[in-house]
Amino acid sequence: MSKGYAVPSAGAPLEPFAFERRDLRESDVALDILFAGICHSDIHQAREEWGPALFPMVPGHEIVGRVTSIGNAVTKFAVGDLIGVGVFIDSCRKCPQCLSGLQQYCVEGMTGTYNTLERDGKTVAFGGYSDSFVIDQDYAVRVPESLKLEGVAPLMCAGVTLYSPLKHWKAGPGKRVAIMGLGGLGHMGVKFAHALGAHVTVLSHSEGKRADALSMGADAFVVMNSDEAFAANANSFDLILNTVSADLVLEKYLQLLDVDGALVVIGLPSKPYQFGAGTLLGKRRSIGGSMIGGMPELQEMLDFCGEHGIVSDVEVIAADYINTAYDRTVASDVKYRFVIDASTF
Ligand code: NAP
Ligand code: ZN
Ligand code: ZN
Fold it and tell me: DSSP class of residue 93?
């Protein structure tokens, strides 16, 4: 029996929940979860902000743990290995995206870690707010032993979600990168962009985060609460990563891009954005989007973290604090990711 926390119905508080994990298949590994991060996407789904969801829901897709048993066909991991599980647990394995390691863009759709049925169409996928997990070896990654484990869990979603667009849009020396929102995702963006050698600016709505941003590696911090702040930063970035899920006037942020600059949407607000065509074509600006990262990139990101000593800044909490942590996350009051100590389930 697995012990965890579940959302019984849309928007209801999470409560203790006991359930069975699936039996170990040939290529599965079982793990004891050590830490599970709280992503804002968990809150969106628990509160049904993205459309109908599946309840009871055990959220959680930032998982780190140790392998406790392996199926007969497992070759990638052994009992005792430290592994991570992220936002998906399966995909079709045969489409061009799956074959090129971009499983998050699978033609048939990736299988989420929770709030969905597995590919057999009947097994409910329960996520990481629990003490154990079962995962196909192909959808887990190796975690460097050198890193602080509580800070590793958020790398599995927040980490790779920022690492992937930074690599894709070639952040590096000479590139002026701005990160919108210093939350769970944003603070990982600052750390990665800095480690990649880019010039990093945080665009925040919270003055109180300035010192933290600078200590994480940001070169500049701007509170975007006035026309003056926008005017002073016009045409000054090559890449803007937008991690904010509140409804913002994107047009104003597009104007911060220099010629050939790109704004990448990562946060998922409920309403569509509006912007003028002239804002794009006048400076050959572009707007894009990016969703988590595929399996090879997840491993690459963890190895990069191992080499550079990068982990998430976390507040470790006990399971009975999850509901408060949700409210604090929504209020932008988290430094900078809540991580549940799985021994408290
Ligand atoms: P988070 O920790 O809550 O951080 C979001 C940040 O946005 C806040 O810390 C805050 O930063 C800023 N913000 C919040 N309210 C704002 C407002 N009213 N106006 C301006 N800025 C505001 O959330 P997260 O876990 O990083 O997730 C962020 C978003 O990304 C969510 O929508 C989540 O679902 C989505 N997401 C997307 C992917 C993907 O693959 N694309 C993956 C994971 C999550 P400041 O205080 O610095 O302004
Ligand atoms: Zn997430
Ligand atoms: Zn596929």
Answer: S
